[in-house]
Amino acid sequence: MNLVTTSSAEPNPSAGPMTEPAPAPRRRVPGWLSAMLWVAIAITVVSTTSYFTGLPELTSSGTVQTALRLALPIMLAGLGGLWAERAGVINIGLEGMMIMGTWGAAWGGYQWGPWAGMLAAAVFGALGGLVHAVATITFNVNHIVSGVAINLLGAGVTKYLSTLIFAPISQNPRESPAVPKFDTFSVQPLTDWLRSLEDLQRVGISDVAGILRGLLINVSPLTLIAILLVPVSFFVLWRSPFGLRLRSCGENPVAAESLGVNVYRYKYLAVTASGALAGLGGAALVLQHGQPGYLEGQTGGRGFIGLAAMIFGNWRPGGLLGGAALFGYTDGLQLRRGEETVHALLYGAVLFLVALAIFQLIRRRWLPMVIAGASAGLLYALYWYTDELPEQLTPYAPHFLTLIVLAVAAQRLRPPAAIGATYRKGEGG
Amino acid sequence: MTTPTPTGTDAGADPGGGATAVVLSGITKRFPGVVANDNVCLTVRRGEVHALCGENGAGKSTLMKTLYGMQQPDEGTIEINGEQVHFRSPADAIAAGIGMVHQHFMLADNLTVLENVVLGAESAHGIGGRARRRVAELARQTGFDLAPDLLVERLGVADRQRVEILKVLYRGARIVILDEPTAVLVPQEVEDLFASVRAMREQGYTFLFISHKLDEVRAIADSITVIRRGTTVGTADPATVTNRQLAEMMVGTELPSPQTRESVVTDRAVLELRGLTLRAEGDGRELLHDLDLTVRAGEILGIAGVEGNGQTELVETIMGIRRASAGRILLSGKDITRVGTLARREAGIGYVPEDRHRYGLLLTQPLWWNRILGYQTRRPTARRGWLDRAGARQDTERIVRDFDVRTPGIEVAAAALSGGNQQKLIVGRELSGDPVLLIASHPTRGVDVGAQALIWEQIKDARAAGLAVLLISADLDELLGLSDTIKVMLRGRLVAEADPKTVTPEELGAAMTGAAGDRDAKKDGAADHQEPGEGGDR
Amino acid sequence: MGSLRGQLLPPVLAIAFAALLCTITLLISGANPGSALAAMVGQVGEGTTAVDIVNSASVYYLAALAVAIGFQMNLFNIGVEGQYRLAAVVAAVVGGAVALPTGVHAAFIIVVAALVGAAYAAIPAILKVTRNVHEVISTIMLNAIAAGIIAFMIRDDMFGVLRGNNISTAEIASSGWVPGVPLGGYGTLFGLAFLAVAVGIGYWVLMNRTRFGFELRAAGESPTAATAGGVNAKRMILVSMLLSGGVAGLVAMPELLGRDHTYLMTSPAGYGFTGIAIALLGRNHPAGIAFGALLWAFLDKSAVALDNVGVPKEIVTIMQGSIVLSVVVAYAVVRRFELRAEQRRVGQKLGGAEPAAATAGGAS
Amino acid sequence: KDAGRRGSVGGQAAACKLADKPELIPGLIATTTATGERIDGSHLRVGLAFDVGGRGDESFNDAAAAGIDRAKEELGITDVREVTASHQESEDVKQSRLRQLAQDGFNPIIAVGFSYADSLEAVAPEFPNVRFALVDATVEGAPNVTPLLFSEEQGSFLVGVAAAYKSRNCHVGFVGGVETPLIQKFEAGFLQGAKAAAPDIRVDVKYLTSAGDFSGFNDPEKATHSTRGLLDRGADVIYQAAGGSGKGVFAAVDDADGAMAIGVDSDQYKQKNLAAYRDVIITSMLKRVDVGVVDFLRAVAKNDLSAMPDVLNLKENGVDYATSGGKLDDIEDVLEAYKSQIIAGNIEVRDRPGA
Ligand SMILES: Nc1ncnc2c1ncn2[C@@H]1O[C@H](COP(=O)(O)OP(=O)(O)OP(=O)(O)O)[C@@H](O)[C@H]1O
Ligand SMILES: Nc1ncnc2c1ncn2[C@@H]1O[C@H](COP(=O)(O)OP(=O)(O)OP(=O)(O)O)[C@@H](O)[C@H]1O
Ligand SMILES: [Mg+2]
Ligand SMILES: [Mg+2]
């Protein structure tokens, strides 16, 4: 035997194999539980803030309703992004598809009522998606180029169509005539009871009641469908053979192809669905109670925000819902009350950071702990020495918050592996 | 190890007589600029293991992809079990009972084992509980220890290959194509694989087997077909043919041997590792534990080990791609622990990475542009912050000449070269500029015999001129033939040292998997990080 | 696909296709495509339009170069929009506040603008390098935030000056102006159009001739290979983003120093997004980008001419969108066509079993 | 299913304690348009450069368009070319547009919107014989440019008074689209008017976006939610100067029980696209760009611009309040009294909030 053992003193090391990804031995919290946990943390932080700053507005049903309404288009655009990007196609054209959706919703709605409007919005958005699909999948065009072009086309085509079709009716080439809207519903006896709870102004109870009531009153079918699309997307994408195939096209299309998956078909379906979802996002700006109809430029970059929410949510439906909710909530706050509530958000941020610092302390991760703690101190000082923030900056509170949460949470984002890559049948491997 | 029961409907119908499973006639496949297959004819009997041999780029993979429906032949016909077929996509081939384990794994890293296996075959058992039970059953039958809900990105190569084989079995394939399945395996794993293959052969499975390792081919195959430059040049009987004869059929040259000449080891230490330790970024596990190592001028030090035991990390730490957590790295006595990769390269380290596509080349760029990579601060490719394009071109021409890189020119994109030629280019580049130390990770993996010989020759010449070489390889013949000293790496430690003149591959293999009889410990370790709750929905 | 035909055919095809599409659209709406075309072409000879096109193109060119620098590194800098706007405001404020000799003053303003652009780009860069925040999301947010900062800065109790119903920054003294090249009735060419050209040349030299450009492109193509080759990929992200932001800072300078001399509340936004489209049109190549910028500017100006003859000017946006899309589609089609042709050629040449020499792929 | 209203105005405060109503100074309210004199303008070729939005924007572009339409009728003008600005276009495009009109022989040329100010400063001297008019801005040192300025603050003052009188909670609100100096004039006048009528009144102000980000003029969704915020806090009369977002204000007001809205620029009660909200629109602050345009064209046709006022005030009918719908019938005397006081110069209306 010519083998000399050099480290005989060592007992057999018990660690596992040394492949590069860290196989953390701790147990993972299941998705639904961690979602509940996040929701609980968020409610606690917000209601504590509301208590200490004396601003019931933070958890009032009105705020929550506004947040929901503002989050919807963003969430739908984000879902659109999710479908496309899970199939490996970057969709920066969501904004253009959303614009198509607003136009379609107004046109269909004007002609045949809100349900038709919703359908038309989805169809128009899907048309945008189809163009994107043809360019990126059939012609292998760079996905970002195609997306930028679709944004231009969406804006141009709707302007043009409005001049052609809406202007004679509304006398205004930039907007549609009034469009019939969806009726809204409330969960009656329950919401009345919640209202009485909310009016009590007790810490915690009233906060939760306000939040729940905000979610249960004035719900339109469109809202309901949109919210349902989140779990539906999850089940279709993660729990069905169709979704498995679709995701495999975004992870490794050549492998999918080698197993007999028609990659083109799934990509086409995904990107078209993506457009339809973005189009629905457009409908959520036109067909909801109190909305006037199509107006040129009304999407105002919500498609991009939707994309950001999706990235924020780590290419997952639950995550993007969280991103959209965060954005909608902050935007709602600043729109309803402006400077004061946004100022109070500073306080909420302090609470959140303190919690984070304690969490890091328990996990003995010193650097993140110090950073979180220091930021908390800084923000608290800012909160203490100012009464309100410059009003010019408050409209951008949601953007600030998104950025800060991303920077602090430093989540390990995991985009689909083959995203943006060109794929051609029979040429892979 | 038990064997899987066939799942096909015609199970055991033919114990392996004269009937043909596959007949390829006159297959021609052209790619832009290349005729990959030129009028290839191939006959495979049912129930046999049929080996395909040929140089890199001979067209073996292309032929197999054609058989598997991934590529449509420009000319020629395919017959399966006596019936002429026309495959428009792999789906058709799978329906006809063909399965393929690709040379480059066809796995989606971010999907679980289960998802990878059932993908495309959902109609059989769905994607839920039934599919899980079926996969578990197959895994039990084949003795594969795989947690179905583990992400594939967490698997090592051998496990990945097992997933690939599961995929094939799950679809009930009767004709299985294995494209270079052994390139990444250690001897024991190869033996396990062969045992499975033999057992399945008894059950009536037909195998098409591709390998560059001629010993293996002779050990497993019932018949051999040799392909050269896209056409079949002949068949051989594995019982009678010798490696030399096979090699000559393939390339028309002599079978090279990695045998080292006289030892030229000096006592001048070039690379010294002192207590080198590396911890993982996230959770601080030790990837490398307190390594001490010295490579002297004129010495080739080989590192043996099952992949995933820290070799990659060791190399990357020496190259400065990862930062050592503790310990020192000395190059010719100078401490380089804290300097960056470029400074290390400038100090005279050459680096042949294990994955040439990811770490070695800029695939869409021309060859001469690739020549600059790693030398962007030095002559002859650069001068004071400016690139020396003429110099780079000239030196690339030299490499192409000296290392026999087969290419139409140096303006060609690196991706257009075959693997062997890409490797020759990299070795040529890394031996330029008089390095004092060469770190060679699997320098001849997937490279044909001709290119392999040339690369060995070049390494030996450089060693004779005083180069120190740290060689990491899964190919034990290469390790034994080239190294002056061999160290065995296991779980981030150097656990044994061996003299290549006397040690046998089996002894090495035993040390690599943790002393003989110790293999259960490894399995336990593997089970450690299999997390049950981990679905795709995190 | 190195051939000249392969380079030039696609844009020609694409423009023809986009023109066809627009013709159909115009016919549907009952307008006369002939007169529309006449108006578009005719405008170039009229008044200052030709010079205006070049002036606008110089601005677009800078924006597109800024975007292209990021693209070379596989960074998608949507943030050029916010970077150039913020840089313009700060440069205008600083430029309006200091008194310096002629020439030095202008140079100072330009440097300030570049620095501000770079500094604002540093935020997404640092977030990406240290916190792994995706640059697309951070720059989307920062673009919006830039608008807020600008609004804050041009408040009349900050640095703003009321000009009737408009707000502007203080006017920059004439020592800080960059005089244009007067071309008589054709208008005045921005002096800083030459800056754009210089930056374009600098970009080409940097990318193709220097170690820095090599490292940047290497890291963009394959971060892993670049790292193994001694390139610090993180540093490259940082540097390329700063560089991109620096060039973005210059975007508004031709207009600021050559025409407006102040930043107005109504100063146009959106050059950053235009820059993305043009960088893509020009395939990150300095000459291609120049062509794209001129084409884009031409189409922009056409809106006025079309409006004048009563043709819906929205057609211009449709045209821009369809050109971007069809140019890239045309490149893809032509490339595949050429590949096929080569395949056939090789197939004929290699009748037997010649060594399979690959010639696919081409130098960029 | 929800029936109609979805909320009421929050807060329990009572109606305001009103200040004493000022005296009506008779004989001051003039009618410049009613000169009756017949003038022929058929020889004029009029160029009209709209701001973004153009004809049909239901705002000041539309008002300018209405002026042209009336001028066609009254002065017999036939040759008019209308061109429209695009979103976020650059300065030289604006210049080209004006230059094109001038070169094609149009004279006079009316530019709508202050964003044409710099362009006119450059273009007007090139065409000294062409008469230009510029809505909402002046151009220094260009004698051939006639500014058409309106004292939006005066009109806003009057609707502020109306809001104070109509508010049941003594709490009113203002929603501005983008925080520009122009919109701040509306805010300033409204604030001053409301305080003048009811010193204790609470006025909440919300702008959708800040200067430079013009999306605030195009986002009815945001306007709806901002308005709801104001209503939830107790404001019950909302004045909007938010361009295209204004509809969102009306929608939110329409939703709340007992809340009222005040329109802007033109008589929004009469607008077809706003018919659904007619019930809640109690008045609108009228900015009579049409009056300015017709006066200007009349003056040009007479070739005498000397009579053009520097600013079109209440006195010149340049601004006013709408009475359609009859919801102000009960307080019209009060408003007329304030109006006469302003015209007489007894009340000076500020054009900057908080100044
Ligand atoms: N998709 C493709 N496009 C263009 N050329 C290709 C393609 N695939 C293969 N080729 C060409 O076909 C030739 C044969 O390649 P193939 O992969 O079949 O070789 P091989 O025999 O499997 O080699 P190795 O032993 O390295 O695996 C190569 O030289 C290559 O130039
Ligand atoms: N998409 C493609 N376009 C052009 N050529 C390709 C393409 N894909 C593969 N090839 C060619 O196919 C050949 C074989 O590819 P492959 O990846 O199998 O390399 P290989 O020679 O087998 O090397 P390795 O030993 O690394 O597997 C290469 O020569 C490459 O030029
Ligand atoms: Mg192969
Ligand atoms: Mg190969």
What is the fold's blueprint, element by element?
The complex is a heterotetramer of chains A (429), B (538), C (364) and D (355).
Chain A: E1 3-5, H1 31-53, H2 61-86, H3 94-112, H4 114-138, H5 143-170, H6 188-200, H7 205-216, H8 221-239, H9 241-251, H10 253-258, H11 263-283, H12 302-312, H13 317-336, H14 339-362, H15 366-385, H16 397-409
Chain B: E1 20-31, E2 34-45, E3 49-53, H1 60-67, E4 75-80, E5 83-85, H2 90-95, E6 98-101, H3 113-118, H4 122-125, H5 129-142, H6 157-170, E7 175-179, H7 187-202, E8 206-210, H8 214-220, E9 223-228, E10 231-236, H9 243-251, E11 269-279, E12 286-296, E13 300-304, H10 311-319, E14 326-331, E15 334-335, H11 341-346, E16 349-352, H12 356-360, H13 367-372, E17 382-383, E18 386-387, H14 389-402, H15 419-430, E19 437-441, H16 449-464, E20 468-472, H17 476-482, E21 485-490, E22 493-498, H18 505-512, H19 519-528
Chain C: H1 4-28, H2 33-45, H3 49-72, H4 80-97, H5 104-131, H6 135-153, E1 160-163, E2 166-169, E3 181-182, E4 188-189, H7 193-209, H8 211-221, H9 223-228, H10 233-250, H11 253-260, H12 271-281, H13 286-308, H14 314-349
Antiparallel strand pairs in C: 1-2, 3-4
One adenosine-5'-triphosphate is lined by residues 56-57, 61, 103, 415-419, 446 of chain B.
What does this 3D model show about the protein?
Chain B: Keywords: ATP-binding, Cell membrane, Membrane, Nucleotide-binding, Repeat, Translocase, Transport. Chain B: InterPro entries: AAA+_ATPase, ABC_carbohydrate_import_ATPase, ABC_transporter-like_ATP-bd, ABC_transporter-like_CS, P-loop_NTPase. Chain B: Residues 22-254, 271-516 form the ABC transporter domain. Chain B: Residues 517-538 have a biased composition (Basic and acidic residues). Chain B: This is Sugar ABC transporter ATPase. Chain C: This is ABC transporter permease. By secondary structure, chain A is an all-alpha fold. Chain A folds into two domains: 55-184 and 219-336 and 391-412, ABC transporter involved in vitamin B12 uptake, BtuC, CATH 1.10.3470.10; 337-389. Chain A has 16 helices and one strand. In chain A, helix 1 (31-53) crosses helix 14 (339-362), helix 3 (94-112) packs antiparallel against helix 4 and helix 8 crosses helix 9. Chain B has two domains: 1-91 and 213-255, Rossmann fold; 269-521, P-loop containing nucleotide triphosphate hydrolases (Rossmann fold), CATH 3.40.50.300. In chain B, the strands form five sheets. In chain B, strands 6-7-8-3-9-10 form a six-stranded mixed β-sheet, with helices on both faces. Chain B has a six-stranded mixed β-sheet with strand order 16-19-20-13-21-22, with helices on both faces. A four-stranded antiparallel β-sheet of chain B has the order 2-1-4-5, covered by helices on one side. Chain B is globular, with a radius of gyration of 24 Å. In chain C, 71% of the residues lie in helices and 3% in strands. Chain C contains 14 helices and four strands. The longest helix of chain C has 36 residues, at 314-349. With 355 residues, chain D is an alpha/beta fold. Chain D has nine helices and twelve strands. Chain D has helices spanning 60-75, 91-103, 117-123, 152-166, 181-197, 220-232, 246-255, 289-302, 332-344, and strands at 45-50, 79-84, 109-112, 132-135, 145-150, 171-179, 202-210, 237-241, 260-265, 281-287, 311-312, 319-321. In chain D, the strands form two sheets. A six-stranded parallel β-sheet of chain D has the order 2-1-3-4-5-11, sandwiched between helices. In chain D, strands 7-6-8-9-10-12 form a six-stranded mixed β-sheet, with helices on both faces. In chain D, helix 2 (91-103) packs across helix 3 and helix 6 packs across helix 7 (246-255). The model of chain D has no long low-confidence stretch (mean pLDDT 86). Chains in contact: A-B, A-C, A-D, B-C, C-D. Chains A and B meet through strand 1, helix 8, helix 9 and helix 10 of A and helix 2, helix 3, strand 12, strand 21 and strand 22 of B. Strand 1 (3-5) of chain A pairs antiparallel with strand 22 (493-498) of chain B, so a sheet runs across the interface. Bound molecules: adenosine-5'-triphosphate (2 copies) and magnesium ion (2 copies). One adenosine-5'-triphosphate sits between chains B (31, 34, 36, 54, 56-62, 103, 418-419, 446) and C (356, 358, 360).
